[in-house]
C-alpha cells in the first residue's frame, strides 16, 4: 500500500459516521510486521486512530501469523458463517483483487457480507509492475472498471491516486533501495526465478505508480 493510498483511505474512512464503518473487516490483512514495520503508514494512518478511539478492526488472512485475528477462506461457507456473527459494518479490501483468479466471485461475496448502508473500501494498483503474492494477474482497473465488479453497490467516491516514483514508495531511503536493487540485478544466479521479478521492479524504479481507489455503499431498499 502506498503512503498516498493510505492517506486517501484514512480520509474517507474517518469522514464517515463510526457506527456505519466499525466493526471493519480488513481482508487480506497480512501480518502485524507488514502493517507496522514494512509499511508503517498502514498502521499509523488507518488502524492506530481506530484503536485509540476504541473502534474494532478485524484483520483477516488465509495464513496464520501475528496480527491476523481470523484465518479463513472467503469461499468457505463455514468461514462466512463465522464472519456473519461479527456484525461487521464495512470491509477494507486493499491490493487483493490483482492476486486472485476468481475476483468476480470474491467481489460478490464481499458485497453479500456487509449490511444495508454498509461500506466497502477497495484499492487495486493502476500503474504498477508485476508483483507475485503468490501470483499477479496484472489486473489494473480504472475506477469505473473496479466499481463495475460490485454491480449491487453504489459508488460514493473514486479516484486514481498517484504514488510518485516506485523508488520512493518503500520505507527504505531511495538511495539505499536503489543500491539494493542494483546489487540484486548483478546476481542473477541467486534465486534466478525471483531475479526476473527484481528486474521488472528495477525497470520501474523511476516510473510513476498509482492506484485505483473506490468507496462503495450498499444502499438499503
Using the alpha-carbon principal axes, give the shape. Answer: globular
Q: Name the beta content range.
A: 15-25%
Structural class: alpha/beta
Q: Taking strands numbered 1, 2, ... along the chain, how are they ordered across the largest sheet?
A: 3-2-1-4-5-7-6
In N-to-C order, the SSE pattern is: HEHHEEHEHEHEHHE
Number of strands: 7
Approximate helicity band: 25-40%
**Number of helices, where a helix is a run of at least 4 consecutive DSSP H or I residues:** 8
> How is the main sheet built?
7 strands, mixed
Round the Cα radius of gyration to an integer and report it: 18 Å
Q: Topology of this structure?
A:
Elements: H1 3-13, E1 24-27, H2 32-38, H3 40-53, E2 57-61, E3 70-71, H4 77-84, E4 90-94, H5 103-113, E5 119-127, H6 143-147, E6 154-165, H7 174-185, H8 192-204, E7 208-217
Helix pairs in contact: 1-3, 2-3, 7-8
Description:
The protein is α/β, with parallel strands linked by helices and 221 residues long. It has helices spanning 3-13, 32-38, 40-53, 77-84, 103-113, 143-147, 174-185, 192-204, and strands at residues 24-27, 57-61, 70-71, 90-94, 119-127, 154-165, 208-217. Helix 5 (103-113) links the parallel strand 4 and strand 5 (119-127). The longest helix is centred in the first third of the chain and has 14 residues, at 40-53. The mean pLDDT is 93.
